[in-house]
Each structure stands twice: as structure tokens, then as C-alpha cells.
Amino acid sequence: MPVTHISKVAIKRRAQSWIKWHPAAIGVVTFFLMMTPMMIAVWSMYNKADQILKKGIHDQLLSAARVMMKAIDVEVHESLRKPEQDLSAAYHQQVQKMDAAKMAVDSSQMIKFAYTCILDGAGVRFVLDATPDGDANNDGVNDRSKLMEIYEGPSPTLLEVLKTGMAKVDREPYTDRWGTFMSGFAPIHDANGKLVAAAGVDMSLEDYVLHRSGLRQVATMSAIGVLFLAYLAGAWMAWYQRRLQNSVAELLRASDAAATAERVKADFLGAMNHELRTPLNAVLGMSEMLGQTALDDKQREMLEAVSKSGELLLATLTSILEFTQLDSRRLKIESEEAGVRSLLQEVLKVHEGELRKKGLSFEQSIAEDCPSRYTGHVAFLRQVLSQLLSHCFRWMAPRRVVMGARAWDWLSANDCVMR
User: Fold this and answer.
1) Would you list the domain boundaries of the chain?
2) What letter does residue 124 receive in the DSSP assignment?
3) What is the signed CA dihedral for 278, 279, 283, 289, rounded to 10 degrees?
4) Which has the least CB within 10 A, 137, 291, 310, 344?
């Protein structure tokens, strides 16, 4: 896959565009960037945990229904088919067994009703019901179902168990005259394996929701924590953006001030250079005119010293002007042709008095492969060589000075880099 390269200019433009954003906008974007994935993670974990919890409740209901089924004496259960047997000892004995099994498996008391039913034609009838007599829901009807009482509006899951003989749990809550429930059902078979009834246990919807409410509270608190963290991140980013904008503004003001000061300095040095160059040119001109008059040897030597000093001072002023232009990025690099030997002689002429004063010898060393002429900024090169000689006299104690030139790198048959 090809790699996309982003230039420094593009990065700078993007940074400049981003730095202009309002701090509140940065805070909002940061808030949503942090909140969205964390909320998705919390929601995903809540759904997964809720599914696990629901499965646990369903398994517990199914297990309780199977315990009820095993607690029942199937032969006695088969003999209970007349409504007048509702008060018989056999009936109460079976109910007590169911109630004891219910207490054994339901330590948290989440099971509200435990009962058995049979399929009578197209309808469902109650056989055993472990519910105590009374009217807990205040509907004017006894909560306990009587023997062979018709079950109006049974759970579809109960009908399916009575027909298929497969233990099942309601997938969704259902409502009958006693309320809204989640129920588990287990089939009851006789000694021959024939399906004869089903045992059921009911959990009220309120208890079902209550068991899941703890998880919902944890998820809610997690979501609140996510919102709080995202808010803190957004607030911090907004504060940082404002601080960054203030810092950038201060840097821009400092940069503008520095540029202004640099420009003023360059203008000042340029003006001073010009003001000094004008009278110096006059001195040099008058010295040249004076040299054309009749002078003795002593006077001519003194005049040459004045002229050379003036020329050196003029070169120094020229260097100051060029460095000023270079610093202000206004220097124009010139390209002109000149002789190598004549350049070295010009530099020697400027420093000839100092060489003689120090008793130093000066030699030129021009390699055979070095071209006789070169192209470049002649004034710059002359100044560099002159500065090298000045530093040599000032900081070193040489016996002789050798300046040489040779071809360093041939670029073609006619062009080379000199050194």
C-alpha cells in the first residue's frame, strides 16, 4: 500500500487551521470523541452482562420447575381429577411437597407461584397449587387455584410444553389474571413415559426487573462516569486551546517586534554605511589626485599608506553593508568572471604593508590543473581571503604566508569547483 507523504507546508497549514478553532468547539469535539467509543463499550458490556443475567434467571426458573416435577408423586397426581378432592389429604400432601421443594430451591424468594397443570382437550386446568389461600393482589378472587379449575389465558410456553414434553422458559413476560410473569415449565411423565402434566413456577415481572435493576444501575453509573470523564477531557482541551492561542498570539507579537527591530537595525546600518562611504570616497579621490603631483619618496610612501588604509576601510564598510543585506535577506548574489592570480595579487596588495611590517614573505601557489579564470561573487571571495589573512596576523605568528588555488572537483570538461 503506497504511503502518502504530507509536506511540511501542508502540516503547517493544517496546524494554522486547527489553531483558529474556538476553544468551545475543541472542547465539544473532544467530548464526543471520548464519549462515543466509551459509551459504545459500556452499552456493549451492559447488553452482554444482561444477557448472561437473563440466562441465569431462566436457568434458575427451569431448574426450579424440574425440582417441582420431581417432588410430585405422579400416581397420586394422576388420581386427583375431581374438584371435591381439593380438600383431600392426598392433595394437601402433594402441595406440601411442592411447597417444601419451593422453599429449598428459592432461598431468594423470587418464585411467587408453583403449580401443576394438565391439558384437558383444548384447554388447560390446574391440578396442584402451592399458593396459600388469600387475595394478595386485591382483585376479589382467591389467589390459590382450585383443583381442575380452568386456567384462562395460560402462557403460550405452557401450552407448548404440554404438547411437546420439552422443558422451556418464557422468552417474554406474559399476563394473566394474577399479574405479569416470567415462568419456567417442566413436563411430568408417568411410569410409562407418557406426558401427563407440567409443573410450573412463576416469577413476577417486578421481581424479574428488580433482579436486573442492579446491573442497570451499574451501567447507568458507568455512563455517568463516562460523561464526566468526557466533560473533563473536553474542558481541559478547551482550556489548553485557549492557552495555546494566547501563546501563539504572544509569539506572533514577539516575532513582529523582532522583525521590526531587525528591519530598523538593517536600515540604520545601511544608512550609516552610506554616510561613512561618501566622505571616505572623497578622501580616496583626493589621495589619488595628490599622488599625481610631485612628491618625494617619503611623502609618496605616506600617501600610499593613506590610500591603502582607506581602501581597507572601504572594503570593511562594503562588508558591513553586504552582511546587513544578507541579514535582511536583500543581498543579491552576483556572478562575474575574474582571474585567479589577479585576485590573489589584489588581496596581497591590501595587506602588503602589514606583511612588510611583520617581516613575512608571501607566496602564491596555483596548481597546474587550476583554471586561470573563475566565475563567482568576486567581492565576497576577496573579503573572505582578506579576513583570513587578518585573522592569521592577529591570532597566529607565521613566518610566511602561502595562498594557493587548485581544482577541487571537475563537474565537466570545462567546469570545476575550486578550492
Assistant:
1) 21-131+142-256, 333-419
2) E
3) 60
4) 137
